[in-house]
């Protein structure tokens, strides 16, 4: 790939042919916004004011520089046109905000497939958008792009078979897009980064809320593990006949019979706990044969073992009250209290 360079032709250069000469004004421009200045050729004559420019050497590109106008600027340009059938392409050079203090800009450009010497015709045309079809044409300079093997590569030449002219409006609109495509879109990158961070934070928030809810459910489960809504029921034991669990208690007649034989008998009631209700075991009877044994029997205290209240398992049959059972036992024991028998052996006749 070979390099290219631009050759500039000022509006005062003899390579630019003005026709007719009396329709053109020569002046200067001063761009206070940039501090630049230069010469400028202008005309307000419609159709008849034109410029012809023929490339002095083979070139692959052409550039037309002028100043935009605020009150009408419509031009026609023709590249390599037939003198018998001219076909002009319109250039729109209007800028309604222009104050005349801006430097010249590219109003038209064209590139060719291969280097060649081309002819350019530029003219002023009526601008129907403004009163009296006013239009003012301005020319600052022409530039051609030539191949230079010693110059660095600036443009790429593509084979398309025909010239590819573009107007100033196309050139100015495509240039920013090319710059924007070559440079990364900082706004899109920043927006993507912020969006990604927001998505990550949202995912973390959802995960944290879910973790908290699972932890709360786990705590509730642990708190209710010790509670059994259906407690186990002990095997039922019949207490319909509590007297059947009671052992025989010595009666008064038995005690009297024992006293008649000169012996003192005291029954000691022992109770045992079977299942869930109180019961009395067999009575142990002692037959002391000496006075010391009788003394111990007299001083022995009756002992009762409280087995506690009976659990109410059978709801249909109620057992006797606790006080009723032990009150009868106490009354029976008191009625059979032993009577002290005098020792007849020590009694003198």
TrEMBL record:
<feature type="compositionally biased region" description="Basic and acidic residues">
    <location>
        <begin position="299"/>
        <end position="318"/>
    </location>
</feature>
<keyword id="KW-0472">Membrane</keyword>
<feature type="compositionally biased region" description="Polar residues">
    <location>
        <begin position="235"/>
        <end position="250"/>
    </location>
</feature>
<protein>
    <submittedName>
        <fullName>Uncharacterized protein</fullName>
    </submittedName>
</protein>
<keyword id="KW-1133">Transmembrane helix</keyword>
<keyword id="KW-0812">Transmembrane</keyword>
<feature type="transmembrane region" description="Helical">
    <location>
        <begin position="186"/>
        <end position="209"/>
    </location>
</feature>
<feature type="compositionally biased region" description="Low complexity">
    <location>
        <begin position="158"/>
        <end position="182"/>
    </location>
</feature>
<feature type="region of interest" description="Disordered">
    <location>
        <begin position="273"/>
        <end position="349"/>
    </location>
</feature>
<feature type="region of interest" description="Disordered">
    <location>
        <begin position="155"/>
        <end position="182"/>
    </location>
</feature>
<feature type="region of interest" description="Disordered">
    <location>
        <begin position="228"/>
        <end position="250"/>
    </location>
</feature>
<feature type="compositionally biased region" description="Polar residues">
    <location>
        <begin position="273"/>
        <end position="294"/>
    </location>
</feature>
